[in-house]
Specification:
alpha+beta; 10-stranded antiparallel β-sheet; globular
């Protein structure tokens, strides 16, 4: 009698089950009766070998079996059968301390008086700080130097006029984002920030969607959507673009980003003591620094959590403090509350 013919390369179900038996060895289970243990193993192998007509391609099947072998041990130990692939856990939710502090900062921001702003005005920001720069030396190695980040900027409220930047006595003008209503998370204006949702859930969804587009699967970025959402909030805060309601919404949205923590004692680039809201990603800790008493935003810094080309663990590679901001009528004009107040350096 002629046997059943199978396409070349396709194995018999019994042969596949033999391979499964090799992939899933007979693990001893302490405290479990021998008869009961053998019964569970038979059931496991039977489940893996059933429905031969629906089995996947050989490569996928082997991958699934290898994963199944790991989960099978846990399944037998727990007394239940689990054959699904286990997800890699992500960062935990923001800590209760971080959530509480961000809510405090949100309430403080919301209590700020709303200043009337015209489309033809400018957002003025003054910062002091430093960043780390890597450069190749004559021997082909890398030199690490600290570069100053002190400067002033004037950004058009509606984005229609050029941005003026001043540093070390040198002025540069950059094109604005475009016409009225222009702006984006990557190139924000005050008008754009004022149009952002005040609902923190909706705002966070918007930040995540933009982060996925810019830093999601298929791209070269290693930042990841959660970290990029955190960075986007920090960029808006540092730029001084956000009115009180938007600032409060940003803080409440940040409280919903996983992995956010609070650090009770830090120092900003202007030498001011504060509290930091932080998130660790890829060997770096991004920190937003706040006044511990008023919960007012002071600046930001980046600290290495792992040694690498940029420095040793614990090194501050970037630190920028906002020492003045306000709304002015013309580029080059300085608010009276800022003029002459900060003339020193940074830490």
């Amino acid at each position: 009698m002629r046997g059943i013919e199978r396409p070349a390369g396709e194995s018999h179900p019994d042969e596949e089950l033999d391979e499964v038996r090799r992939e899933v060895p007979d693990f001893p289970v302490p405290g479990l009766a021998e008869a009961r243990r053998l019964e569970r193993r038979r059931h496991l192998l039977a489940e893996l070998g059933r429905e031969p007509g629906r089995r996947p391609a050989p490569r996928s099947r082997r991958h699934a079996v290898v994963l199944g072998a790991a989960t099978a041990v846990c399944a037998v130990m727990a007394g239940t059968l689990v054959l699904t692939r286990q997800a890699v856990p992500g960062p935990p939710p923001a800590t209760p301390a971080a959530v509480a502090f961000l809510e405090r900062a949100a309430r403080a921001a919301a209590a700020e008086p709303v200043e009337p702003v015209r489309a033809d005005q400018y957002v003025y920001v003054r910062v002091v700080g430093h960043t780390t720069v890597l450069s190749e030396n004559a021997d082909g190695g890398m030199d690490r130097t600290r570069q100053r980040e002190d400067g002033e900027s004037w950004t058009s409220v509606d984005g229609t006029r050029p941005t003026l930047r001043r540093a070390d006595g040198v002025e540069e003008r950059e094109p604005g984002p475009g016409g009225p209503g222009a702006g984006s998370l990557g190139s924000p204006t005050y008008a754009f920030a004022a149009s952002l949702p005040s609902d923190p859930e909706v705002l966070l969804a918007m930040l995540r969607a933009d982060a996925v587009r810019q830093h999601g699967p298929g791209g070269d970025s290693t930042t990841g959507p959660a970290q990029q959402a955190f960075v986007a909030v920090g960029d808006l805060l540092r730029g001084g673009f956000t009115p009180p309601a938007t600032t409060a919404a940003l803080f409440r949205a940040a409280a919903r980003i996983p992995g956010v923590v609070v650090l009770p004692s830090v120092v900003d680039a202007a030498g001011r003591d504060g509290v930091a809201v932080a998130r660790v990603h890829d060997g770096e800790r991004s920190e937003w620094i706040f006044d511990a008493t008023t919960a007012r935003y002071l600046g930001e810094r980046t600290v290495l959590t792992e040694a690498g080309p940029w420095g040793g663990r614990g090194d501050v590679v970037t630190s920028v403090a906002v020492v003045g901001h306000g709304i002015v009528d013309a580029a080059g004009q300085v608010p009276r509350t800022v003029a002459g107040r900060w003339a020193g350096g940074s830490r």
